[in-house]
Amino acid sequence: MTTAAPTERALARRQQVLDAASDAFRRRGFHAASMAEIAKLAGMSPGHIYNLFENKDEIIAAIVERDCEDVVQRIGELQQEVDVLQAMLRETDKAIDEHSQVADAALELEVLAEASRNPRLAAVMHASQALVHAKALGLIRQTLGPAAAELPDGEIEGRALLLAALFNGLTALSVRLPDQHKRIPVMAPVMRRLLQVLLAP
To answer: Which end of the chain is less crowded, N or C, counting CB atoms within 10 A of the terminal residue's CB?
Structure first.
């Protein structure tokens, strides 16, 4: 027996719940935020939410998967560029700004903390990161061009890991330095040089 694909309305309702849950988790934390609060923010009954998601664990897993899809899509868009490196250099200021949002950092750190003690969520996160990592490896090989064949796999993987560390580090730093976005003019030139080291042959 095959399961019917979710309708457009059902998908929209799921996104509505994920947006509401993200807001609640940012402000109150995963455990303090209740399903009733999420339902109120989503403008629907708790029963309706339970028809879409089994529990909060399933909601936060869906948030992780949605974020992963967004990153994979963005990398895919970059791969359509004629010159990937130049496209990334042009977007450096924007990328730093996007990774310097305190609200987004609060949610990401909440998810990371929960994944450290929740094996089910950890498995979802690890699977999502594996997809992003594989996509990043492809992006770097594409950017390097023929020179990629001359490098050991470990070199390319190391570059991909450091690239992830740069942007993930910016997200965490935004909590320590709430005015981080004001420092983009001094960070962007350095980030461009680092990108050239990681992505140029």
So the answer is: N
